[in-house]
What we know:
With 131 residues, the chain is α/β, with parallel strands linked by helices. 41% of the residues lie in helices and 23% in strands. The protein has helices spanning 4-20, 34-42, 57-68, 88-94, 120-128; strands at 28-31, 46-52, 78-83, 101-106, 109-115.
Amino acid sequence: MKHPITTFSAWGLALSLWTFGGTANALDISAYSAQALSQKQQAGEAVSLHFHAKWCPTCLVQEKVFNSFQGDASVPGTLLVVDYDQERQLKREMGIRSQSTLIVFKGKEQKHRSGGVTDPQALKAALLSAQ
């Protein structure tokens, strides 16, 4: 005789893995730190920098698009949000001339650079360029 509780538990586990497991590799968004960037690059991972300013309307649109990718397992990687007004040295080092700039790396290799892009499909394609 089958144990109904065991069968029910197995189905519940399978359903929860199917439902929630898909976001495990979705885009991770966090604040920029030199240490986080270095760790991701040393590990050869996909890591992107979004040079964001709170006062920038284009940046705010981009932010909404990036946030929508957080639950999408088809957009893996890490997005580090750089405070455009505070990270002056990083801007000089990377040749950043305006806010709303996105740079995508696979490890230390730059795969994509754009500025002012707000189209969700274009931003998704940019993030996927490091896969």
